[in-house]
Amino acid sequence: MEPEHTRTHPRHAVPETCDSREDRSLATESTFVAGWRRTAAERGDAVAVQTPDESVTYRQALMVVEERALVLGAAVRDRSRPIAVDVESDVESVLSILAVLCSGHPVIVLDPFLPDARRDHILGVSGAYRLTADDLDTPVPDGVEIAEPGPDDPAVLIFTSGSTGAPKGVVHGQRAWVNQAADGRAFMGLGPGDRAATLLPLSFGAGFDCLVMTMLNGSRLLLWDVRRRGTDGLRDWLATERATTAHCTPSLLRSWLSPETSAVGSLRLLSTCGESVYRGDVERVRAGLMPDGVFCSWSGSSEAGNLAFNPFPAERELPAGVIPVGTPASDKHVRIVGDDGADVPAGEAGEVIIESAHLALRYHDAPDLTDARFTDLGAGRKRYRTGDLGRFDQLGQLHLLGRGDDAIKIRGYLVEPVEVESAIRALPWTADAVVTADRGQGRLTAYIAVNPGTWSPAPVEIRRELAKMLSPWMIPRDIVVIAELPRTERGKVDRAALPAAPGRTIEPMRGLTEANLEILWLEVLALDAVGRTEDFLALGGDSLAAATLLARVRERWFVDIPTAEFAEEPTIAGLGRLLDEANRERARTDAAGTVVELRGGEGRPMFIAAGAGAPAVSLLPLVRELGGDFPVYGLQAHGLERRGRADRTIRAAARRAIRDIRRIAPDGPYRLAGYSYGGFVMLEAAARLVDGGARCDAVILLDALFEPELLDRICGGRHPELSGAGDRVALPDRTGVTADTSERPNEDPAPADRLAALRSRVLMRTLVATAGLVTLPTATQWTVFWDLGRQLIRRHRPAIYRGPVVLVRAASSPANVAAWSRLVTGGTTVVPVAGDHHSMLRTPLVAETAAAIDAVVTPGGPARERNR
């Protein structure tokens, strides 16, 4: 019993024109020549071949072919010598091909579009006799007899496209073409009543197949030379000639069909072959040309002939992405095997193996290559190792996944380029696409031809869209947008002619500023790796992506980098220098180094202290949302931007804040606010101002969060208002990553990790101890001051403020009202706002935070519930 995935499965929509009597007749023929002569005799005056310019009947064709066969038999006595025919899509070429086959010689079809070097290579390695017009004009010699070819005599010598190396000659026997014709009957329903429009050049393997399937099934072969005539008028020609079937490549189909293409009522079946076909292709066929017919995906190879068919009647649901190649062809026993040569279960990928009595006989003059690919199984059967990857699904449908040597491992995952191609083709911009794999560098490159009539996307836009459908490791590192894909004379993608992907050097970052910029670049460009000297534009960034990047820089570092300056050196290294220089310049313009005017206006000013490790300008998003007409000043830590020793206690920071405040506003009443760490500084400053006789009419704490040690000191141990039932608080750091100070389970890191962690702690302690005395890169400086701020909160011994405060609390933060009630005697009003510790000061949630402040400092603001 055969494995489940190799059994015969139900075929879809075999047309009613199939005639079982004629099927049996065809099956009794053992050679193409015998099948052709029988069919031609039976069909007589029926048209055999028709082009827009001429036609010939079966009877006429048979007479001409027999005469020419005798001429060729006399001209070339060596029956093993191939005869090459220059082939166009015309009647004369069909007759010449048939004549060579009936002469007993193997035929080679030469494409007129072949480069001279390629044609010379084929003629040289094959030793073929090239048919000329003079040969055809030679009178039929007397007394010449031609021996009838046998089933395993060579009939056709096909040269591969060379897309995976040098072109190879593949020798097929006579019986193989009888089997091909039987497939046309069984899977496409080809019969005497059909008019089969072949839009493939006859020099293509699939074009030759169409000739064979049509001639041996008694159909009318309609030939339209797409390469010379183009596609203008093609639809009307199909309708005029009442074509019942049409056969082409997916790329031709895409270039030809449009939403405006009207239906051809006579067309019952359209097939494509030669490359992957996608759901969108079939949908376009159904939407216009053939709403009620059968779409058939048809696949094969030079060595195997037909491999599989997958008919889709109008009512059959289409799968997403690539259309499976479907049910194996007649007498093609297909196996999927693993590395050990054993069959794998359905759903699992492996190499595609074909066993049949109707495979190629051998490679021409290449015994070693033949032995490597073909194995004789006895009884006329062979096994062929395709080198392709594939799988059977649970319904027994065969899926091809590309060449085995195309598969690539990225981050430990095996990626098939064809799956990535499928996702790219689903994008609205894509007209054509191919994905290549560089196994040495572990990367994918996507070449995408875009529709010139629609928006042409930047690579960064394509990556963002792919990220919605693919895992990160499947997104191509390099994306090249081009007008059209180069193709060989046989219509396949000419990979050798694809433009080279931009070379990349992944140079590591230097310092924390560049390391932080790297994170932004990877997010904005949707990449998984970037070097410090790589050009932003070369990586696929456009003007919109650049604006997004600089906006993110402004949001994080509160520095405006002009796009013109960024464009001069659009690299991480260059942007890092601009960023550090902008911060140094800002520090030079602030004489005190701790106060920045954030907004002008009339009336009493408001003073807001920034959080730990953050400059005063980090408060700009909040200040811009405030109502009223009064100046606002931002306070920041001493030494953060100008060289100077940092304050070592919150009390010292508060004394400095009071000096700065009184320098600007000698007399109160004062309006004070502080964010996070800055809230503790301003509350301490308010307590000292009030104790000194001044008045504060507004003290606002913006999500000031207790460190556990300070909370324990105030409340006498763990307190139920902490985050959870007695758990210690999880405080978010300045980058938005939670710094969990709860006790962690014991871990046993590797010795190297323990040593690295120890070095990191020692380095940070040293930097914190000397904070402000040494000028550090921006990101490093802010991290050091953030760590220092947390230490100061842990060690803080706060004074009691004899007045009311308003606590504007992020929804996700603990209120700790009981703790504040021990520090504030005038009562604490808690105003919850949307967001977390960071987002409450960022667009768009900062507007609600600003409204809460306005309600306090603007007379008549909305009342809030006060918590005593």
UniProtKB/TrEMBL annotation:
Keywords: Phosphopantetheine, Phosphoprotein. Residues 1-24, 725-751 are annotated as: Disordered. SMART domains: PKS_TE (SM00824). Coiled coil: none annotated. InterPro entries: AB_hydrolase_fold, ACP-like_sf, AMP-bd_C, AMP-bd_C_sf, AMP-binding_CS, AMP-dep_synth/lig_dom, ANL_N_sf, PP-bd_ACP. One of its GO terms (cellular component) is cytoplasm. Its cofactor is pantetheine 4'-phosphate. Residues 508-583 form the Carrier domain. PROSITE patterns: AMP_BINDING, CARRIER, PHOSPHOPANTETHEINE. GO terms for molecular function: phosphopantetheine binding. One of its GO terms (biological process) is amino acid activation for nonribosomal peptide biosynthetic process. It holds the Pfam family PP-binding. It comes from the Bacteria. This is Putative non-ribosomal peptide synthetase. It comes from Gordonia amarae NBRC 15530.
